[in-house]
Amino acid sequence: MAALKTRRMLVLTCAIATLSTAAACSGEPGALPGSPGASGQGIIDRAPVASAEAIAASPTATAIKQRGQLLIGGSLDAPLLSQQNPATGETEGFDATLGKLLAKYIIGTPDAKIVNSSSETREALLQNSTVDVVFQTYTITPQRAEKVAFAGPYLMSGQAIATMKDKSAIRKPSDLNGKKVIAGANTPGVEAIKAQAPNAEVITFATDPECVQALEQNRGEAYVQDLTLLAASARLNDKIQIVGEPFTSDPYGIGLKHGDDAFKKFVNDWLVRLQQAGIWQQVWKDSLGTVVTGEAPAPPAIGSVPGS
User: Fold this and answer.
1) What radius of gyration do the chain's Cα atoms show?
2) Is pLDDT above 90 for 36?
3) Which of 3.10.20.90, 3.30.70.20, 3.40.190.10, 1.10.1060.10 would CATH assign to domain 38-156+251-290?
C-alpha cells in the first residue's frame, strides 16, 4: 500500500513539471485542459447500466431514476476536474465525466446537472437533499464522515504549496512559518498548514479562484491546496508556480447523504465495475492524463481509508 501511494504521488508530482512546462510554452493560456476529446462519447457508450434489481435495492437510486436526472454538487471552474466548456456548455474533466457515468448507471443516459457548490456549502446540500452526490475533490476524513457518507475513495492526491513565480522564499512547508498563507475555508489545507507551520497566519477564502486571486494580490505569500487543484490553476495562470512536493496524502470520496448505506453500496459497486472495465483509467487519461506523462495510476481500493 505504501509503495502504491508513493507511485500515485510521484505520478501527480510529474504533473506539476508537465503542467508548468505546458503553461510556459503554451500560447493558449485560456485553453481548456481535461476535455474528454473524441473518446468522451466512447467512454459513455462503454459505461455500464445498473440492473433493475440493483436499482430497486436503493431507494435513492430509485428516486433518481424516476426523476430522470442526477443532481451533483460540484464545480464549473475546476480545470482537469470539472469545468464548463464555454463553447459547448458541457462540463468536462475527471469529476464531471464520472458524474455523467454515474448518471448513466442509474438512469440509462448521462443526464447529470451540476449544482455549483463550495467547501462551505456541500455538506448542507447533501443534508437537505438539494443534491444526490458530491464530486468535488472531497477529501475523506473521519470528522467529515460523521456528517456525510463517502463512497470510494476514487482518487488519491495531497496538499501542496503554490507561490507567485517571482517569489523564492518558500520552498518547503516549514518555510510557511511566520508567513500569511492562503487556504480554502473548511479544507484539509487549513489543518495541514497548522501541522507543518504552526507559526503561519492562515487566511481562508470560499473558492479556489478567490484563493488564486488573493495570491496574485499578495494578500498571502503562499497558497496551500490539493495538488490537482493547484496543478489546474498553474496550467491556466503562468504567474503561479508549485514548489516542493505534496506533503500529505488525501483520498477523494464521493459525498453522499449520511446514513444512506444502501446508496453507498450502490455507488461503490459502480466504482468497482468502472475500475474492472478499465473505464476509470480511461477517464483519468482523458482528463488529468492529458498533462501527466505515463500510464494511469492504479485506482484506490474501495473502503481503504478511515471514513470510507
Assistant:
1) 19
2) no
3) 3.40.190.10
Q: What is the pTM of this model?
A: 0.74
Class of the 159-243 domain? alpha beta
Choose among 187, 183, 165, 167: nearest CA to 175: 167
User: What ranges in 197-298 are assigned the alpha helix state H?
Assistant: 208-216, 227-236, 261-276, 279-286
d(CA 102, CA 110): 7
Q: Do domains 38-156+251-290 and 159-243 have the same CATH topology?
A: yes
For the chain, the structural domain boundaries read 38-156+251-290, 159-243
Residue 25, helix vs strand vs coil: helix
Q: pLDDT value at position 22? A: 36
Instruction: Give pLDDT tens digits for 149-165.
Output: 999 999 988 898 999 98
Q: CB-based burial of residue 258 (10 Å sphere; 0-12 exposed, 13-18 middle, 19+ buried)?
A: middle
Instruction: Give the alpha-carbon dihedral of 172, 176, 180, 183, to 10 degrees.
Output: 60
Query: Regarding beta strands 82-84 and 91-92, do their DSSP bridges make them parallel or antiparallel, or are they unpaired?
Result: antiparallel
